[in-house]
Design a protein that fits this description.
It is a single chain. About 40% of the residues lie in helices and about 20% in strands. By secondary structure, it is α/β, with parallel strands linked by helices. The protein has two domains: about 220 residues, Spore Coat Polysaccharide Biosynthesis Protein SpsA, Chain A; about 60 residues, no CATH class. Strand 1, helix 1 and strand 2 form a beta-alpha-beta unit. The protein is globular.
Amino acid sequence: MSDSSGNSIRASVIICAHQPDSRHLCRTLEALRAQTLSSDVWELLVVDNQSDPPLKLDESLAWHPHAKCIREEKLGLTPARCCGIYHTSAELIVFVDVDNVLHSDYLAKALEIASQNPRVGVWSGQAHPEFEESPADWTRPYWAMLAIREFSHDKIMMAFDRSQSLPHGAGMCLRREVASAYINEIVTTNWRLLIERKGQSLMSGGDSDLALLSLKIGWGIGHFSQLHLDHLIPPIRLTESYLIRLKKAMAASGVVLDHFHREPTPVRPSIFRCLLRRLKILICFNGVERRMQMATLHGEQHGWDIVKNRSQIACES
């Protein structure tokens, strides 16, 4: 894709939106408008994922020469992302959530990283929290679940290291070759549609799946400290009920990802081991941490149920 002056489009920014908070979306778009990278060399696509009423963004996007909003009727973050990938053209894709406020040099830095690290296929940067209300102290150990990432040193991995975190979806950058491979995998492996956000579901394995797929096909993954964004966090995401739901969903997603990505394939723990673990949780933990530990256990059991159902379908087909 090229603009009228012949400049090639170097980056594609994709925003997937389902019933977005209008205040957050406005700030996300304002931050994109303030990018130091000329809008002549990047395109902006908002994927309206079954919002009701449909998003009307003609005026909000009028400042950008290569911006549009399209509708994806199949509910879920994965279908929305695939729609965005299909309708964009640049070699570098940047996923921006509706609560991400990119710092003004984000896109320029992302292109620099792509040029300087030709074997890295998926990467992300720092995500600083912007809380709408001051969070309670007890929530701090769980902030990483909210895609808050702050670090001082870059990290690049060419093989999976369980001691290291994978790139997160907030401001995630990926090369089109990885994105194309991901779409091909979606067509042949429908379990991926079960581990990603869909409506009110908090399943959240798609970001890790993209990173693991990048490694699988020979591309590295990375964290780069020069990339900065602010993550807008409303009070609801700091309630105990929300964090427990999120913990359970992330544990379920993790089991499914491990089953399909790890070698040798993990085996479901026995009932006896699960009972022992439950007993240990009841003995060793109290209060919120006990409930979080139990949510993890229940989430993992749900993940194994997903794996079992997928395996049965595969055998019957």
